[in-house]
Fold:
Amino acid sequence: ETGVTQSPTHLIKTRGQQVTLRCSSQSGHNTVSWYQQALGQGPQFIFQYYREEENGRGNFPPRFSGLQFPNYSSELNVNALELDDSALYLCASSSPTGVFGYTFGSGTRLTVV
Amino acid sequence: DQQVKQNSPSLSVQEGRISILNCDYTNSMFDYFLWYKKYPAEGPTFLISISSIKDKNEDGRFTVFLNKSAKHLSLHIVPSQPGDSAVYFCAASLSNFGNEKLTFGTGTRLTIIP
Structure:
């Protein structure tokens, strides 16, 4: 299977709830990164996983956590949702061949009410 | 601290003319620069990149110019086509390794007028 797929495409949650977003990486890509894109902003790096271990983290609190599975699929979990967590969440997979090889999914639009 | 800046939120260009999108950065350690194009309801797609050791990279209608001393890069699209209407993001990384994080600008919405 080619490309990066994310699910769900849209999600509405209530403040204080927890959410899990899923990503299926492009075949052959062993690195997955998650980005948050707030309205009117560029994507911001949340964290990255390489071979199932966290491999770098941006300026996000610990209530943002993730997992990468042996088949290179990945999850982003957010606990204690806040209104400011409303954003488009993008998953990107890449291989060691180069950063230009990033492939982004279409994203999950999360709305916290 | 916005390390990558795109100061023009929007740009309108006549079809067939040249589109020039600009990007400035503050971190002199950035080694690799990329441009992404994003349509609504889709993820960003890679357009063109340039290494810090070069000052120009061309791919068809798209050319990226890098001025390291000014910490400035620009994307030229010529001739502009209606399908080029999208949001364009400039991004930078500390290296070209596939596990490097990207730092994005805020984007420029390009509208091509038929």
In short: The interface with chain A takes residues 4, 6, 9, 32, 34, 36, 41-46, 49, 89, 91, 93, 95-107 of chain B (CB under 8 Å). The first strand of chain B starts at residue 4 and ends at 5.
